[in-house]
Design brief:
Blueprint: H1 4-14, E1 31-39, E2 49-58, E3 61-71, H2 80-86, H3 90-93, H4 99-110, E4 115-117, H5 120-135, E5 143-145, H6 146-155, E6 164-165, H7 168-174, H8 185-205, E7 217-218
Parallel strand pairs: 1-4, 4-5, 6-7
Antiparallel strand pairs: 1-2, 2-3
Helix pairs in contact: 6-8
Length: about 220
């Protein structure tokens, strides 16, 4: 996959909606957006977004007054496993807004800022299905994966065979951050923003996260 700086000129050339050229402009200094979606399931091709939340981050502050939240009417049926996770039923999203009506407002809110998330690749992939219809290209924003930042601070100097736990709960626990209502898009976006700032501060101060001396591997969970 070509690096982002190489892809952007091609994406801009293929952009079919000139009104969204602002997505390719320089981001405001030291700003980012924490993003989270809840979906009808985990199939990137067949499932769809039911809620989306985004919160702006400026410097070391989480701007909860500058947030975006929307409940969507999905283009795919809700799967039972997904309902168990986010507790949203078909009836709960039936009156939601159509994605095509929400997307312009979401893109204006995000602007050219980097996107911060946990399992961000999945959330962006789910949104990109709709973004492509509108723009002709995927979201061009820089993407910051918090589990990767956490891995670097805790396991970056680990010896081979060290146990790796990138679960959301473990990250919050290690960073001594509060656990809010999981699998609610706004709460997850808020916790992710807190994780991002905490890890960025640790890196700035050159502080690593202490790890136990075990062997094995444990994968992270989807947020």
């Amino acid at each position: 996959m070509p690096p982002r700086w190489l892809k952007r000129p091609f994406q801009l050339a293929l952009l079919k909606a000139p009104a969204y050229r602002f997505l390719f402009e320089p981001a405001p200094p030291d700003e980012a957006v924490s993003l989270d979606c809840e979906t009808t399931g985990l199939d990137r091709r067949r499932d769809d977004v039911v809620t989306v939340a985004a919160i702006r981050i400026r410097g070391a502050r989480i701007l909860t007054s500058e947030r975006f939240e929307a409940k969507l009417r999905p283009e795919a049926p809700m799967k039972p496993d997904a309902i168990k996770v986010h507790r949203l039923r078909e009836a709960d999203v039936a009156e939601g807004r159509a994605v095509r009506d929400v997307l312009p407002d979401l893109l204006k809110f995000i602007g050219p800022r980097p996107l911060v998330g946990y399992y961000l690749e999945f959330d962006v992939a789910m949104l990109n299905k709709h973004v492509r219809r509108l723009l002709g290209v995927d979201l061009p924003n820089q993407k910051v994966e918090t589990s990767a930042l956490y891995y670097e601070r805790k396991y970056g100097d680990a010896p081979p065979g060290a146990q790796v736990d990138l679960s959301f709960a473990s990250i919050l626990s290690d960073l001594k951050l509060p656990t809010l209502d999981r699998h609610d898009a706004y709460s997850d976006a808020l916790m992710t923003a807190m994780i991002y700032l905490a890890l960025r501060d640790l890196k700035k101060r050159g502080v690593r996260i202490e790890r136990q001396r075990f062997t094995g591997v444990r994968h992270f969970d989807a947020g």
